[in-house]
Structures are given as C-alpha cells and as structure tokens.
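SEQUENCE-TO-STRUCTURE ENTRY
===========================
Question of interest: how does this chain fold, as expressed in backbone structure tokens?
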Amino acid sequence: MPALSEVMKIIGLTGGIASGKSTVASILQKLGAHIFDADIASRQAVARGSQGLQQVIDVFGRDYLTIDGELDRQKIAQLVFENKAALGQLESIVHTYVRSEAKKFLEQCRRQNFSAAVLDVPLLIECGWYKEVDLVWLVAVDEQTQVERAMARSGMSQQEVEVRIAAQMTLAAKCQYADLIIDNSGSLKQTELTVKKEWEKVLQMED
C-alpha cells in the first residue's frame, strides 16, 4: 500500500456480516464517493483463468473447481471455515491481489486529485488495513438485528448465522479501532442522514 496522501483522505469502511456495510457504501457512492470494493476484487482474484485460481488449484487441488472450471466457493468456504491453516493459505493468495488492486485504485484517485476515497474492506481491522487509512468507519447493528438480517438475506438458519458471527472479531473489539461508528439499527433515512453529514465533514477537513 502507498504512503498516505497529504491531500486525499482515505476512509476504511468495514462492518460484520449483515451489518449494512454495503448499504452505507451505496449511500456514499450516491454522494459521489469513489469506492474500492474488496469483495469484488476478492472474486476477481480467483476468477476462472486467473493466476490466483491456478494458485488455488496448486494448493488445494482440482476438487475445488466446478464442472465449468470456476472456484467452487461453497466447497472452499466449508474447508477454510473448519481449517485455519487452509484459510491462511487462501487468504495469502487473495489478499496479494486485493492489495495490489487497492494500491492502483488509490494511485488513480490521487492522480485525479480527489478529496477523499473509500476502501470498502470487510476484514479491514483483522488484516491490519486500519493502519493504512486516515479514518476507520465501522457500520454496526445489535446482534439480534444482525442475526435476523443475515437469515433473511442468506437463507441460513439462526444457528448457522450465530456460528458465523462467533467466528468473527467481536463488535466490541472492532469499536476500539473505529473513528466513527455508524449505527445502522434504525431506518434507512437515519443512516443516510448520518453518512451524508460525516462524508461532508471529511470533504471539509484541512490537511
């Protein structure tokens, strides 16, 4: 990652499963923010025919491909969820690509003299990216809301969602790294007003 710009402010946007991080990112985009989506980059990292997918095959074998030659995401997810060593291997492959793409994104934003840019990264804190941004924005909801929204969105059972949440860094721990906590438990309108106000503050920041 490049050194922080003396002009452009970099926001690291993060949040747990079903917290509404994507909603906040969408609001920011409508406000004119330039956003790097780490989830999209992660999928590109292991797309069919990519160097990343070949590395996955070399490490885990062709059993983790679909009949169409794409990564079997459900199968690999099951493996890494139960095997920390495998998770580390997969993350090493994916994160190398994602960091490279994030660097290119920030360099392009700087060349265009943007006042601010957003890195939308689910594991911003866990992966240490929080050290490389100016501000950490954490989208948060209470756990019951998180469970209900995750079940409605994914079709997973309550137990499955709770297991996923338990495997993540706790909200309390994440809050210690946050410069701003966006409470997304209320209405969309409330979230929109909060994000708009905070985004305008960033744009008005002096270097």
